[in-house]
Amino acid sequence: MSALHVLSFLFNCYSDTPSLFNVTRPQHLSGLELVRDMCNGNLEGATVGSSEITLTPGKIKGGNHVADTRTAGSVGLLMQISLPCALFAQGPSELCLKGGTNAEMAPQIDYTLKVFKPIVERFGVQFDCDLKMRGYYPKGGGEVVLKVNPVKELSPINMTERGNITKIYGRAFVAGVLPFKIFLHYIIYVSIFESTGCIFAGSSLGKKGVYADKVGIEAAEMLLRNIRHNGCVDEFLQDQLIIFMALANGTSRMRTGPITLHTQTAIHMAEQLTNAKFVIRKAEDEHGNNDTYIIECQGVGATNPSL
Ligand SMILES: Nc1ncnc2c1ncn2[C@@H]1O[C@H](COP(=O)(O)OP(=O)(O)OP(=O)(O)O)[C@@H](O)[C@H]1O
């Protein structure tokens, strides 16, 4: 499940035809039930393991909603699914999202707050996110409250200059009874670039039998890998911004490192579901780096009919 499912959902809100989704896990279902509730829609075939689901959306109203993965399923992904819908709602939304705040293969809540949030604000997106409780694998039990104001439309972004690093900081989290030298639940390093405001992160989650120092090294290597490619976004922000580029009113540009599979899929789906046009070209790189690209998008300029 990713933001693409929402793009499909949003698209269908405007075209008034049902859409199809692939669903396998509880967190996917929680996300779909959340958008169903947000838009007074109707879901058919929504069960764990189902490969075909039909969502017939109504109007996106806003208001208060709760989504609970009942596992350590990621609240970051629930946020990824619901945020674009909330932006095009008739009024403000308050979403209580429960599950894992720090889960595998998903945006960590710290990533969403420290990296995604300040960058997505450049599109004109405004949201508050209150982290009430952290939740880790396998228990989950985390909770965040997301408050979103709707927008009339999104502005395009231009992120083609990276600047120099001015700050790198790290945060580590432990929970439970094991000493932190042995077991670290989660670590994130964030780097911030001068004047341009680019922000990258490298993160890693603890696993049974893996010593804390290994977790730290993995996160640092992720950050370094991204700093080396000379793009303006890291390998995760790349795919997470595609939906906003597609919906924005005008041409967005983003300098990246190697194009990820998630980004390729996101672009493919965005082009299938809207009239947004993406072009990827190799970037000139004064540092001799061959793996730098510019993703350019002519966004569709989706507008919120209620504002
Ligand atoms: N360490 C990380 N930091 C920030 N974001 C991450 C990290 N790992 C994964 N992501 C983001 O999580 C999202 C994963 O979406 P994805 O569609 O893979 O979810 P999924 O539920 O695992 O679905 P699928 O199994 O179909 O891939 C992507 O947007 C990706 O950028």
From TrEMBL:
Q: Which keywords accompany this UniProt record?
A: ATP-binding, Nucleotide-binding
A GO cellular component term found in this entry reads: nucleus
Q: Which InterPro entries does the protein's record reference?
A: RNA3'-term_phos_cycl_insert, RNA3'_phos_cyclase_dom, RNA3'_phos_cyclase_dom_sf, RNA3'_term_phos_cyc, RNA3'_term_phos_cycl-like_CS, RNA3'P_cycl/enolpyr_Trfase_a/b, RPTC_insert
| Domain (RNA 3'-terminal phosphate cyclase insert) ranges | 190-227
Q: Which residues form the active site?
A: H262
Which residues does the record give as ATP binding sites? Q80, F236, L237, Q238, D239, Q240
This protein is called RNA 3'-terminal phosphate cyclase
- Species of origin reads Sinocyclocheilus rhinocerous
